[in-house]
User: Which sequence fits this backbone?
């Protein structure tokens, strides 16, 4: 399973590609940041993010795209830009028919560190260890994008089981009403 | 001047095209709503909005796109979807090199009714009068999109004068430091 993780942001949009399956060592395929100038017009910044994401999709052909779920509660000032950057990432993936998964920051932290309240340094340290890197990816947005991809790979089996259970339950209900 | 107004939303994205110049009667060229099903995946909804906006741009070739500026303070539950729909509208316009202007809800209300606190009915009534329509456009999102376009046409001369004043001031300062 090859996953592109996207940590959305207008100034720095973290992107990271991880390959592997749950229960086996994971491999980092690529990591980077799509940047846009803070003084550019918002429309142009969104176009630059689109171009950047498209390049990552072209080059790495992920089967899934995992994007951080944005909450309006946090960082009220920057949350609009984060929501807009995440929309562009989701749009690029969905346009190609690539399934998009959203994971909350605490799901991601819990997946890679065991605690939903872990700090940036702890996430960076675990990403470095799990992907057997020489040093933590910089900036933190790049490490967060890799953490998102790892989270998605590890949660996928559970999500698949859940979906199967829901489908079975639904078909059982259907059978009953016939 | 031909302006496409966009009242962004995931479930209903209002779109309206108005042509005219400040100080002259305005003409409605088209009005409608781009809808996406609430039970569809977010990525697919964003793709549907992109397709809808592209169709409006193709058909009406506006010179400007005016989008409602989204604030995180209001309607915390729906604001993320609004921000994401607005990102798609801005992206579509900027990709074609069409200038994007953002106007706040109170700027729009003040422009068409004289009061920044006007309600939906008042905005609808004034849009109907200003565009000489037989009845108020439905739903309210469609009327709001037309109000955005009207606001942009009426504010444009003031904004141009402001930009000219800023440019003159900047060149005067430059002259002084030589």
Assistant:
């Amino acid at each position: 399973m090859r996953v592109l993780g996207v940590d959305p942001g207008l100034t720095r949009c973290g992107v990271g590609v991880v390959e592997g399956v749950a229960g086996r060592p994971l491999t980092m395929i690529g990591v980077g940041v799509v940047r846009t100038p803070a003084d550019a017009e918002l429309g142009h910044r969104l176009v630059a993010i689109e171009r950047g994401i498209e390049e990552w999709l072209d080059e790495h052909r992920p089967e899934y795209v995992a994007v951080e779920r944005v909450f309006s509660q946090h960082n009220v000032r920057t949350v609009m830009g984060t929501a807009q950057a995440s929309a562009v990432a989701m749009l690029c993936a969905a346009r190609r028919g690539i399934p998009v998964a959203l994971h909350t920051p605490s799901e991601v932290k819990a997946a890679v560190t065991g605690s939903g309240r872990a700090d940036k340094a702890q996430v960076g340290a675990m990403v470095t260890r799990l992907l057997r890197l020489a040093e933590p990816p910089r900036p933190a947005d790049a490490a967060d994008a890799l953490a998102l991809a790892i989270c998605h790979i590890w949660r996928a089996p559970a999500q698949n089981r859940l979906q199967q259970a829901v489908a079975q339950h639904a078909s059982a209900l259907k059978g009953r009403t016939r």
Remarks:
- Strands of chain B lie at 2-7, 12-19, 27-35, 64-68, 100-103.
- Chain B has one domain: 2-177.
